[in-house]
Each structure stands twice: as structure tokens, then as C-alpha cells.
Automatic annotation (TrEMBL):
InterPro entries: DUF4537, Tudor. Keywords: Signal. This is Tudor domain-containing protein. Residues 1-24 form the signal peptide. It comes from Candidatus Magasanikbacteria bacterium CG_4_10_14_0_2_um_filter_33_14. Residues 43-98, 99-154, 168-223 form the Tudor domain.
């Protein structure tokens, strides 16, 4: 295609370049481009935009776009550090509307301090939103402490399968505690589909494994008081590792639990959020 430029047009372009205009890119737009709601809310990311950007995998911090770069945008974080990030590693600093947040909504949510992490809304009571972070930890946050993870709007594959029943009560996308090498040491994981044995899971460290239904359980803390003698899994030191044990004492808000970690038997007190009822059959 032949295109002719007028002298006036060329002069105008050169004037813009001389004025220091920088690249701006449409952000958080649906790949299909047919959602009127998204068209209405579409924004343009450019120098000066206040954002949250991914500093490392699933970990986000607040900053400002101060230039473009090879991958997309150069971010000046509030603490003075800088990083070049791609378009899917940066979101506008904008709290979601109430109607946009439901159980199952993907967000990045504040933990403590200034860090935000990949999370999913699992419960809503009034203006309190309970989120479960990618590592299985849970916390109550407000709308102002969340940003919508709009990457899910353009993902296909596994994301499109979310909610599909795999086996029993388990569905694609469910957070679970799953066996790895033994039945006594389990790890945080997510169901990503079916497999020959029953359930294909991806662990928190991105490793995958095919498991039978009785090799995993829902990663949900019990909502009722448990009794002495109940078989449980405990998360020691708030890691992604769970170990098989038994409640030996009930007191206060928590439990005394005897468990075996890497061949060593220990007895410790645990808060309810670090306990899972071991209902594997």
C-alpha cells in the first residue's frame, strides 16, 4: 500500500517527537475486543501512570511508569528500585467496584507491609473479603486492598476450564493439599485437569503430578471445633508443606497436635487456619 504524507503532516510528527512524546499502550483489554464494558473502562498506560507491577513471580509492588523499555514499561517502584516489565506484569492502581468482585474473582491482594500477592476471593461478608493467596494462606481484606487480576480475561486453556468437575467434588481450579512422595507429607497445589488416575495437580512450585482422589483434600480450614483424636494435616511454620498428625489437646482458639515431620515426631500448638481435617479415605 502506497501512503503519501504531506509536508505539513511530517512537520507535525517531528514536532511531537521533539516534544518528548513517549509510547503508550492499551492495558487490560480483552483480546476479543467485543465487551462494551471493557471498552468503556479501557485506559492507556503511559509515563506517570500509577501502577502495581510484578517484582518477582506472584509478588507485586506499587510504583510509577517512568519510561518504555524493551519488554514494555520501565517501573520506578516506591522504594526506588526499577524494573522493565511486560504488559501482563502491570496493572493500574485502581480498586475494583463492588459489582466486579465475587467469590472466585482473581485479584492481587495486600498481605502485610507493602507487598501484594496473587490471590482469589473465597468468601464475602458485607464489606469484608476473604482471599486465599497462591501459597494457601488466607486473609480478610477490603476493596481498597485489592486490584483485579485482568489477565484472566484473555487466558485460554486451563482458565477456560475453571469450575469443570474432575472427580467427586473436585473441580478444575480448586486449591488442594496433595501428596507428593508419601502420604504423610503433602503440599499446596491446584487442580488443573483430569488424568489417568483421576486428578492432575500443579504444586506451588509449578511441578505437576497425576493423583488418585484419595491422595488429596480441599485446602480449607475447618469451620467447626474439632475433637481430640481427630486426624489432621498441619502446616508447620506457615509454609506450603503439610504433615499428617492428630489432635492431642483442644484449648483456647487452637489445638495441640502431634505430627511427624521428615521422620521426627513433634508436638506443637496450631491456630485453626493452619489445620486441615484429614478426610482422605
Amino acid at each position: 500500500m502506497n501512503v503519501k504524507y504531506s509536508l505539513l503532516g511530517v512537520v507535525a510528527i517531528l514536532a511531537l517527537l521533539g516534544a518528548g512524546c513517549t509510547q503508550s499502550i492499551s492495558l487490560n483489554n480483552n483480546a476479543n475486543g467485543n465487551s462494551q464494558k471493557q471498552i468503556d473502562t479501557q485506559k492507556t498506560l503511559g509515563v506517570g501512570s500509577k501502577v502495581f507491577a510484578e517484582w518477582k513471580d506472584k509478588t507485586w509492588y506499587h510504583g510509577t511508569v517512568n519510561n518504555t523499555c524493551e519488554q514494555g514499561f520501565n517501573i520506578l517502584f516506591d522504594d526506588g528500585n526499577q524494573k522493565c516489565v511486560s504488559q501482563d506484569q502491570v496493572f493500574f492502581d485502581k480498586s475494583p467496584n463492588v459489582e466486579d468482585v465475587k467469590v472466585g474473582t482473581k485479584v492481587i491482594a495486600k498481605w502485610t507491609g507493602i507487598a501484594y500477592y496473587d490471590a482469589e476471593v473465597i468468601k464475602i461478608i458485607g464489606d469484608k473479603y476473604t482471599v486465599r493467596y497462591y501459597d494457601g494462606m488466607e486473609r480478610d481484606v477490603t476493596l481498597s486492598e485489592m486490584v483485579l487480576d485482568t489477565r484472566t480475561q484473555v487466558r485460554g486453556g486451563e482458565e477456560a476450564e475453571k469450575g469443570k468437575v474432575v472427580v467427586g467434588d473436585f473441580k478444575v481450579g480448586d486449591k488442594v493439599v496433595a501428596e507428593w512422595v508419601s502420604a504423610d507429607a503433602l503440599y499446596s497445589a491446584e487442580i488443573i485437569g483430569n488424568c489417568e488416575k483421576g486428578v492432575n495437580v500443579r504444586y506451588y512450585d509449578e511441578k505437576e503430578k497425576c493423583l488418585a482422589e484419595n491422595q488429596l483434600l480441599a485446602d480449607v480450614a475447618p469451620t467447626t471445633r474439632q475433637e481430640v483424636g481427630t486426624k489432621v494435616l498441619v502446616r508447620d511454620s506457615n509454609t506450603n508443606n503439610f504433615f499428617a498428625g492428630e489432635i492431642t489437646k483442644v484449648g483456647g482458639e487452637g489445638y495441640e497436635i502431634k505430627y511427624n515431620a521428615y521422620g521426627k515426631e513433634e508436638t506443637k500448638d496450631f491456630e485453626p487456619e493452619n489445620v486441615r481435617v484429614d478426610n482422605r479415605k
